[in-house]
Amino acid sequence: MMTPNPLPTTHHNRPLISIIMPTYNAARYIGKAIQSVLGQTYSHWELIIVDDASTDDTENVVRAFEDTRIRYHKVNRIGHPAGVRNTALRMAQGELIAFLDSDDLYFPQSLEKLSRPLLSNPNYFAVYGFEFSIDENDATLPQAVNLIPRQSPFAEEEPPYQLPPDYGHSWEQIVTSKITNMLPALMLRRADWEQIGFFNENLCGPEDYEFYVRMFLHNYNGVYCLSDYVYQYRIHSASLTKAPEHYQKLLDSCLKIMKWMFDEAAIPAHALTYRSKAHIACYRYLARERLLNHQPAIARKLAMMAWRDQNVHRIDFLKQCGPILIRSFLPSCFDQLLVQLRRTLKNRAFQNPVFNYQEKTALSS
Question: pLDDT digit string (tens) for 162-208?
């Protein structure tokens, strides 16, 4: 195990940021992920890599980096990201906590941008931004959220984008999973994380979403939404949500969260009215993933499970899962053509701001 001497928690009035990185058989990508941390303009960090018993060359790739800020710890097989992240969190020394998966990438100013609201406003305990989607070869993909370029001139400390008018972390959007809840887009104060608690190890897949809900329950007004792309999210065939054998575990975990959120958690009373929309969002997300990965039979099965779910209103089913059910009967090539057409129109509608962002990032680095 590569472990440095304890790092100072502050450096030139800048707090230490602990970056949590779980990994498993990520030899192909983890070197780039580490390089993206080494290239940060905010240099006072520790990178805690917990390896869940990789059987490929992951360990050798990590040990090739000699920077003492990198802490590598290999464990016996845990088998789920929540437990691996919790192991890393127990090792963290920083005042601020950040996350990066071993197949994703930071932009050079990611830590700088995420930490700025926390350092400038003591009322904020957490800040989150948006993912910039890339494929396994680093090529740009259509973005889940198209941020709107801010008109020049604007202040240097302002983010270069504005939020779309239909985006915000209202309780309706929180419980219906319409907020971005990617962990590498998040940074929070350690003191608040200790009150929120560890990741739920009884969940398989959506433990990040459940953590976000607990975060908003802890202090809704203390969460700041940064209108900027703060990391590169790699979408590839090895992702958990894409493996056909995992869909039932993912669904079970989603439904566990729904039951906890609506029956036990102290969400505001008005948020309880979104029970149907929240449930149908789970089915729609998982079914849509199956369609995109050429698994129409599973997508159809998920849609029919949504139809039989007593928590789902028929009108919500028809709006959200009806189109997916129809698409599940279409030839795969035709369905993919419809998906590509929709993405093209969506990017044109926002004048494809992501390419401007890539160019700007390349110039600044």
Answer: 999 888 889 999 999 999 889 999 999 999 999 999 999 999 889 99
Query: What domains are there in the chain, each with its CATH number?
Result: 10-238 (3.90.550.10), 241-329 (no CATH)
- Residue from 132, 37, 205 nearest 49 by CA: 37
- Tens of pLDDT along 293-339? 889 999 999 999 999 999 999 999 999 999 999 999 988 776 667 66
Estimate the share of the chain in helix, then strand, then coil, as percent rounded to the nearest 5: 45, 15, 35
Could you tell me if 129 and 98 are in contact, meaning their C-beta atoms sit under 8 angstroms apart?
Answer: no
* Residues forming a β-bridge with 70: 47
- Nearest CA to 114 out of 216, 49, 182 is that of 182
Please spell the DSSP secondary structure of 98-129, one letter per residue. Answer: EE--TT-EE-TTHHHHHHHHHHH-TT--EEEE
